């Protein structure tokens, strides 16, 4: 057995997907399963689909290409705004994409015509989080331009909150999308098929019956994969958080001072560290570092173990009060945040093991 490794419980992820799909379905909302958090690892993708997900979304065209080449036949969307340099690949592999720049949509139109395809476009609207999206007052004009472009189909409107500005989803900011959609339908005589009202953070509105009626899609990744909702600071009710476990191996155990000896300068990442003198402690080193993972997102399953810090290749632990005997070769287990999962899944030095 090799380490470090993430063991992925497919059964629990499937149950999370089923629960969230059923929850949303009761409010007339479809779930787009977001696969970027695990680099679209195919066994996990298929587990999401087995759990009832009917559409998929990813931010990397390489992941979308791999999913399409695996034989998946459900619609897959690029959820990050396409780069102009990749529009041909986007049209070739993705059924649709989320967009905010008319110039890029025009390029998608040209490539779609050249390839004999119809590419679906969901226009992103910025309702306050200040990441991507057209400002609400500009949406009708931009939609008018899209409707004149051959080769693309205007499918609907979307928004994102929580990921950059930390803005919480609300009835008011989801209603902005619904009102814009109704205005577009009246103005242009078209049907707005999709109103994509947000991500995992928006599930709380669904649970409380506070999402604006008319929103008919949510893009869910973390809620299915980890059962967590960091924007609202909670676990998603009805889901499991035991879906993934990071296992890493101890390579050194020694009793050492808790405060470095000598003049303190900058560490390998340019920071000046600050240490508290807590006396001698039993310290362990795990073969894992900042090159592999967002260390701040790791949580030891043994609550008596404390993470002290990390360099690029070494994770330092205080195991003075560990509930079991920690020695060289011992395996320590961690839960992880979405950010930690994202970096671990991206690292080629960490094994991913569906179980």
UniProtKB/TrEMBL annotation:
<dbReference type="InterPro" id="IPR001608">
    <property type="entry name" value="Ala_racemase_N"/>
</dbReference>
<keyword id="KW-0413">Isomerase</keyword>
<protein>
    <submittedName>
        <fullName>Alanine racemase domain protein</fullName>
    </submittedName>
</protein>
<dbReference type="GO" id="GO:0005829">
    <property type="term" value="C:cytosol"/>
</dbReference>
<dbReference type="GO" id="GO:0008784">
    <property type="term" value="F:alanine racemase activity"/>
</dbReference>
<dbReference type="GO" id="GO:0030170">
    <property type="term" value="F:pyridoxal phosphate binding"/>
</dbReference>
<dbReference type="InterPro" id="IPR000821">
    <property type="entry name" value="Ala_racemase"/>
</dbReference>
<feature type="domain" description="Alanine racemase N-terminal">
    <location>
        <begin position="8"/>
        <end position="224"/>
    </location>
</feature>
<dbReference type="Pfam" id="PF01168">
    <property type="entry name" value="Ala_racemase_N"/>
</dbReference>
<keyword id="KW-0663">Pyridoxal phosphate</keyword>
<dbReference type="InterPro" id="IPR029066">
    <property type="entry name" value="PLP-binding_barrel"/>
</dbReference>
């Amino acid at each position: 057995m090799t380490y470090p490794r993430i063991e992925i419980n497919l059964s629990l992820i499937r149950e999370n997907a089923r629960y969230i799909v059923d929850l949303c379905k009761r409010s007339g909302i479809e779930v787009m399963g977001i696969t970027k958090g695990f680099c679209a690892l195919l066994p996990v993708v298929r587990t999401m689909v087995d759990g009832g997900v009917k559409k998929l979304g990813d931010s990397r065209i390489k992941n979308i290409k791999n999913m399409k080449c695996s034989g998946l036949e459900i619609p897959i969307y690029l959820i990050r705004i396409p780069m102009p340099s990749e529009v041909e690949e986007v049209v070739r592999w993705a059924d649709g994409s989320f967009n905010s720049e008319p110039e890029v949509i025009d390029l998608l139109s040209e490539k779609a015509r050249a390839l004999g395809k119809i590419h679906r476009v969901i226009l992103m609207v910025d309702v306050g989080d200040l990441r991507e999206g057209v400002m609400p007052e500009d949406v009708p004009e931009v939609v008018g331009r899209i409707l004149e472009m051959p080769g693309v189909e205007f499918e609907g409107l979307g928004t994102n909150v929580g990921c950059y500005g930390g803005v919480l989803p609300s009835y008011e900011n989801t209603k902005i999308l619904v009102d814009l959609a109704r205005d577009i339908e009246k103005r242009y005589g078209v049907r707005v098929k999709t109103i994509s009202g947000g991500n995992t953070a928006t599930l709380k509105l669904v649970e409380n019956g506070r999402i604006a009626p008319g929103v008919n899609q949510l893009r869910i990744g973390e809620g299915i994969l980890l059962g967590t909702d960091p924007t609202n600071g909670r676990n998603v009710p009805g889901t499991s958080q035991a879906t993934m476990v990071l296992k890493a191996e101890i390579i050194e155990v020694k009793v050492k001072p808790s405060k470095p000896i000598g003049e303190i300068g900058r560490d390998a990442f340019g920071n000046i560290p600050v240490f508290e003198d807590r006396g001698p402690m039993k310290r362990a080193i795990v073969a894992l570092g900042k090159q592999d993972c967002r260390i701040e997102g790791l949580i030891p399953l043994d609550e008596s173990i404390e993470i002290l810090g990390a360099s690029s290749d070494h994770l330092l632990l205080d195991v003075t009060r560990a509930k079991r005997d920690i020695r060289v070769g011992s395996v320590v287990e961690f839960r992880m945040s979405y950010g930690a999962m994202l970096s671990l899944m991206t690292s080629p030095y960490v094994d991913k093991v569906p179980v």
